Amino acid sequence: MSIHSTQATDSSGSVDALAITGVMRALSNPNRLRIFLLLRDHLKREGKGAGLRVGEIAERLEVTQSTVSHHLKELEHAKVIRLERRGRNVMCSVVCETLEDVLECLGCNLS
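Given the sequence above, the corresponding structure tokens read:
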């Protein structure tokens, strides 16, 4: 698997250390973790496909939009979140599959 896929195993079924460390590195920053937790909580309340605008994230976390944008790029690169342009807005949402794959590879069963 490459880090560009959403699975934490390669084609032989082996753990992809690069993908896992990429996710862990992305979430190790306190601001990025706060963004992720905000998006996760929003997903739990609103259901699948729910997202927040960049401006909403900045408001709720009381940081600048440029700071949020910087951290969103890092989270997107690690495939932890998805960014989707909708008109003039960019919507941010959690990519559950990435985290489920990482937890599975680490031996954590979510079920």
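The chain has one domain: 17-105. Try to locate this feature in the token string yourself.
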